[in-house]
Write a structure and sequence with these properties.
By secondary structure, the chain is an alpha+beta fold. It has 9 helices and 18 strands. α4 crosses α5.
């Protein structure tokens, strides 16, 4: 079922506008990521949907039913918090089964649901269910938190930066688990993050927030390729300024490098000469920093250039990849 947000507004004491008339429709059964920098309003939005943050105006509708007047415990919504919020005195099985037990599930039915959820999140190894949270790794605790959220059979799962506290290899593993779990269950997930790679990898639908305002909404690949504004484009990745007037930009991966002019009269490409400032290895690719007058450009390459810093190199790009972005 779809989630509709209508003119959501929230102003904190002191005059800080956390949400500025945010309106959006989140597709049914989709994995939606809400992305923005610190202070953009993304966590406030998530808390408002959960009923944990009072709104000054607007309405939240899930599957045609308004949620505004419902307290958090009566909303068909479960939240996975960044800090996990597991009960330290309960073992894994009791943590996972907590919501289902409150709903009246008992005995073998409860045990079967807990066992199935632990299998779903990859925690079905012998002995895991009897451990306390303190005996688990961060990744295991996050899996327990997700299983607990699913145990109450919610219509909507909210995730507040669930991967932020994990190291990079573990984040990738948990990210794939989240995507697989959401697809298998067909539930709507709303996931807050400040990481563009995480948002691009997970989202079917993406909301971009900036200072409490919704500045873009849509499929992540489309927003990356053709952002509506410069602020939206920069949230999703680096942009390099192109020479000339008119505020034209390009994604670094769309710049091609060489040491001589390669156009041969190609009407679909442009070229310019820049000075190589530095090259940096990023693991699977190289980042090239270039100077074009007072401008600094970033390009990507699969291998380092043979030239030393200070050398002139030719940049070429397709005209179709240029982005004219209003500020």
């Amino acid at each position: 079922m779809s989630l509709t947000l209508v003119d959501l507004s929230r102003r904190f004491p002191g005059g800080v506008l956390a949400l500025d008339r945010v309106s959006a429709t989140l597709p049914a059964g989709a994995y939606t990521c809400v992305m923005g920098a610190s202070g953009s309003g993304k966590t406030t939005l998530l808390r408002a949907i959960a009923g944990l943050e009072r709104l000054d105006g607007g309405s939240i509708v899930l599957g045609g039913a308004p949620l505004d007047r419902l307290p958090p415990e009566r909303r068909p919504v479960h939240t996975v918090f960044q800090g996990y919020a597991l009960f330290p005195h309960l073992d894994v099985a009791a943590n996972v089964g907590f919501a289902a037990r409150l709903a009246g599930l008992r005995g073998p039915a409860l045990a079967e649901r807990v066992a199935a959820l632990l299998r779903d999140v990859g925690l079905d190894a012998p002995g895991i269910a009897e451990r306390r949270p303190a005996a688990l790794s961060g990744g295991q605790q996050q899996r327990v938190a997700l299983a607990r959220a699913l145990a109450g059979e919610p219509r909507l799962v909210l995730l507040d930066e669930p991967l932020a506290a994990l190291d990079r290899p573990l984040r990738a593993d948990l990210r794939r688990m989240l995507a697989a779990t959401q697809r298998a269950r067909g539930l709507a997930f709303v996931h807050v993050t400040h990481d563009p790679e995480e948002a691009m990898a997970l989202a079917d639908h993406l909301l971009l927030l900036d200072h409490g305002r919704l500045i873009a909404s849509g499929p992540p690949a489309a927003l990356y390729a053709r952002p509506p504004t410069l602020a939206a484009g920069r949230l999703l990745g680096e942009l390099s300024p192109l020479p000339g007037a008119g505020g034209r930009w390009i994604r670094p991966e769309n710049l091609t490098l060489g040491t001589h002019m390669m156009l041969a009269g190609d009407p679909e490409r442009r070229a310019t000469v820049a000075r190589l400032v530095a090259q940096r290895c990023l693991g699977d690719r190289w980042e090239l920093e270039l100077a074009l007058g007072e401008r600094r450009l970033i390009a990507r390459a699969g291998a380092p250039l043979a030239e030393e810093p200070g050398a002139e190199v030719t940049l070429t790009w397709r005209i179709a990849d240029e982005l004219a972005l209003p500020r």
